[in-house]
Specification:
With 116 residues, the chain is mainly beta. The chain is built from one helix and eleven strands; from the N terminus they run ββαβββββββββ.
């Protein structure tokens, strides 16, 4: 199993409507060489927990992700042979993307994002 550790560049911003609702957005981008960029946008609520995520991998947008538990989101419709799971750490400094094959739960890819 091959693991990829990716350092993230982070910028924090919020739209005026999001600020009014107490929501801020964290953007984590992974540059994998050449034109290969992966991005995770995380909407953080006033309680400091992740409310929603948007993920763009090297092939384009992935999703929509459904929240399955606190700071954990999953995407994997029946038409795909994989599930993609994004987990955001409670301290909002780390995120993990795990791609898991549905047949037996074998891990195909793990990417660790560090947000500073």
């Amino acid at each position: 199993m091959k693991y990829a550790i990716i350092t993230i560049l982070i910028s924090i911003g919020a739209a005026s409507s999001a600020q009014a609702a107490g929501v801020r957005q964290i953007e984590c981008s992974a540059f994998l060489g050449g034109y290969d960029v992966e991005t995770i946008l995380v909407d953080i609520g006033a309680d400091g927990k992740a409310e929603s995520v948007q993920y763009v991998d090297h092939q384009g947008p992935v999703g929509p992700f459904l929240k399955t538990s606190t700071n954990t989101f999953e995407y994997g419709p029946e038409s795909l042979v994989i599930n993609e799971v994004i987990t955001i750490a409670d301290d909002l400094r780390n995120a993990t993307v795990v791609v898991v094959y549905k047949d037996g739960g074998r891990v195909a890819k793990t990417a660790h994002f560090t947000c500073e």
